[in-house]
Structure prediction request, 308 residues.
Amino acid sequence: MRFLLPLPLPRRQTPARQGMRGLTLCCPLSHLLVVVANTLQLSMMVAFLCLLLVCLEGIAPISWFVVFAPLWVSDSVTLVTGVHEVYRVCRARPEAFTSRRNALIAQINRLKGSAGVAVFKFLLAMRQSGVWPGLTIVATCSPYFVAAALRLIMHLLKKPVPPPDGSSARPMRPGTPFNPVHPVILMLACRADGLNSVSWTATFWPLWTVFGLLAIASVAASVLAVGILVARDPPDHGQRALFFFATPSCSPSPPLASSSSLPSPSASTAIRTSRTRSSSRPLSPATRSSSPSTSSSPSSSRRCCCAT
Prediction:
């Protein structure tokens, strides 16, 4: 006879299924793809450098299209991952992002940059290989100029987002409207074509400006961090700690009180006058009787004996 149980019995998993389940939990497929893509792009960069050295040194006659082939493979990986991210953003729920439009514009910017770089390499390969020898450097770098204009337009299309800390600051668009590399490329192209006579040192002024601002920000952050450590103040009071550290008489003592808690000169003068009057006022008989006699105290007796 067969007895049917109302509850289904648990099935035992085979070792193969358990292994696949453990692999899925410990190493998600998305993370594995990101690691593989980064490794592939790094290897393509190394291959490009090796082929470029072989071509420049004249070790072997290699076409410039072959030299740039590894970089085009890297750009294709970026395009595939960018398309996947756009598809993921479009299918995600609206509450998954602060602004779906901003996330979509960010991924389109990524695709635009990768496509522009690939077109620039193709034009440069045509110019260097003699397929289009009359192509100027400015025309070769034109994809970067188009990318800069599209970046500015897409930044203006972004939705202003309030600050994440919940402060009452004005909502701002995330990201920057321009890339400091684009002015450098424009000045380099004009200098290479002989359109201006600016020195090569002055040609890189956008990068010098960016590096100077980064250096100033690094020094300010270092001084702020040291000021917080010296003043032993929490990070939200970093400005007060910075001013405390900047004073010449700084020491590892508790931070100075704020100006609102310090008494004014007139108030300190009034306090000093009241203390003087209270010390010079004679005591009443009741106060004398209630206060202990100075001659009966041990300290006063010691003083009298020492005086005698």
